[in-house]
Amino acid sequence: MVLQTLDIVKNEIPIEEESVVISEDTNAGLVLVDIINGFCTVGAGNLAPREANRQISQMIDESARLARVFCDNKWPLLAFLDSHHPDRLEHPYPPHCISGTDESNLVPALRWLEKEPNVIIRRKDCYDGYIGSFQEDGSNVFVDWVKKNNIQVLLVIGICTDICVLDFVCSTLSAKTRGLLAPLEEVVVYSRGCATFDFPASMAKDVLAHPQELMHHVGLYMAKGRGAKIAREVSIGAVKNA
Fold it and tell me: What is the C-alpha to C-alpha distance for residues 152 and 234, in angstroms, rounded to an integer?
């Protein structure tokens, strides 16, 4: 039934995905959204997968690949880590990714990023990394990062496609429209570098159902509708002449 529904949705709201080449002379920045144990490592918490998950595993592999390319080239990378105070939980979800626990740390395949000089780690206590980047003095870590590095193309990957990734992308595109993120020109969401959680209707009781493939597609569709480019593959190198 879920597969039939997914086919109907993909037919009614198709997504045009592109092959994206980020040229070496483009000022590109990579944003990782919440690729942490509490969302990705089997059994790590209330919102972690209960068993190995193909979509999440693929996201981790692709994020590690792209992160390595960016770090080898000393290009800017910003990683958002969901991190909540135990007294300020995130409705309607159960307690998750509590500050100071391993749930709120990068997955093992990405822990090496913590020692890379081109990487900024930003812990956030809300869905939206843009909002979560505001400091007490009113400055914004993400905005300052974009401007300091003169980022023209922003590549976004992470989890969940339809929640934290989408919220961040929408806020970023709105800020770009308002002229708050110059010189940013383009936001790219890499579909294979994103994932979401799987909570089919058969398991839903007191929470909303959340079928993985369906909601992943919807998240990508909504991001494209806001103005993001959706990439089916991402490579780095010189752009070939037509």
Answer: 16
Tokens of 202: 């058969």
Q: What is the pLDDT of residue 56?
A: 98
d(CA 4, CA 169): 29
pTM for the predicted model, two decimal places = 0.94
Q: Which residues contact 83 (CB under 8 A, 6 or more apart)?
A: 97, 98, 99, 104, 123, 124, 125
Q: How far is CA 105 from CA 34, 53, 80, 81, 152, in A?
A: 9, 19, 10, 7, 28
Q: Can you list the residues of the chain whose pLDDT is less than 50?
A: 240-242
Specify whether the CB–CB gap between 119 and 110 falls below 8 A: no
Predicted local distance difference test score (pLDDT) of residue 93:
85
Q: What distance in Å separates the CA atoms of residue 232 and residue 91, rounded to the nearest whole number?
A: 32
Cα separation, 241 vs 62, in Å, equals 27
Residue with tokens 């007294």: 87
Distant-in-sequence, close-in-space partners of 47: CB < 8 Å, separation ≥ 6: 38, 39, 93, 94, 96, 97, 197
pLDDT score, position 206: 66
Using one digit for the tens of pLDDT, what is the confidence trace for 175-223?
Answer: 999 999 999 999 999 999 999 999 877 766 666 788 999 999 999 999 9
Instruction: Give, in order, the Cα–Cα distances in Å from 18 to each of 36, 64, 228.
Output: 27, 21, 11
Cα-based distances in Å from 183 to 27, 145, 150: 10, 12, 6
